[in-house]
Amino acid sequence: MIEKLCIIGVGLIGGSLARALKEKGYCKQIVGSSRSADHLQKAVDLGVIDSYSTDMQEAVKGADVIIVCVPLGAMEMVFSKIKDVITPDTIITDVGSSKQSVVDAAERAFGEIPASLIPGHPIAGTEKSGVEASFAELYQRRKVILTPLENNNPEQVEKIENMWLQTGAEVRHMSVQHHDEVLAATSHLPHVLAFGIVDTLAKMDSQQEIFEYAAGGFRDFTRIASSDPVMWRDICVNNRDALLKVMRNYIEDMELLYSLIEQSDGEALSELFEGAKGIRDKFNDMLQG
Ligand code: NAP
Hints:
By secondary structure, the protein is α/β, with parallel strands linked by helices. The protein is built from 12 helices and 9 strands. Helices cover about 55% and strands about 15% of the residues. The strands form 2 sheets. It has a 6-stranded parallel beta sheet, with helices on both faces. Strand 2, helix 2 and strand 3 form a beta-alpha-beta unit. The relative contact order is 0.11.
């Protein structure tokens, strides 16, 4: 059980966690904090949190667990605001989509990496934002990656792991660096491609016609380009090195594909497409299984 959980940033991710934990009765009290009293009042009205304060220091007082669910670019500011009012027993965790940048932000704010910081990242989400978009089932059968640090207390790590297990998620551990590389490839690259292709098409002369005739393929491929631009700006900047590395690989593969099409090399193209289809079909089976 958690006595007092403080969620800083009660949007899609923080709100969905609160809803799931409330359904399980896992926290005696859930307090929210962020910039806007209107957003927080909405979260109270929807039954997502019990109370709130826009004063972060007030909100975190007496909390046994603080979870920071704000965009990556706001993490350091949050850590700086709460650093003087927390004790070594207060567990601080987060949901940020890149992990090295969160650890670095904490180090800058606290002057050292706090032993009670247990970085985390739920691999779940939608292209929607805000508490209205949150739902209790978001984490069911989804993975949550924790990237525990050397100086973490195993009991505190276990407490955060148990919290996520309550939501129906599967918890995995990874190093910070490995997390950032894996997520750059599996999540950050596809989002950059979706934003990029919409931008490319929008700039073409006949954009009216292009969007008029865009069908299922365009819709499936670009759904995630409706995601929050601020969040994705922050992810790109905060996971820059890992993302650039995987983008470079992608650009090289695109050049290869370009030359195969240029040379009308049907045999090589079908071999490449067969391979990709086989992998995508297996992934589909895995999802359905
Ligand atoms: P969201 O729905 O937009 O919620 C963000 C929350 O942060 C809002 O409650 C907002 O409330 C608050 N906030 C924003 N800027 C702030 C600031 N400067 N100071 C204090 N509070 C601030 O976003 P989300 O999708 O839940 O994403 C939150 C975090 O989860 C991000 O770090 C993201 O990388 C990570 N994440 C997202 C997904 C996804 O698919 N969406 C998946 C996994 C992880 P106010 O406007 O009231 O301040």
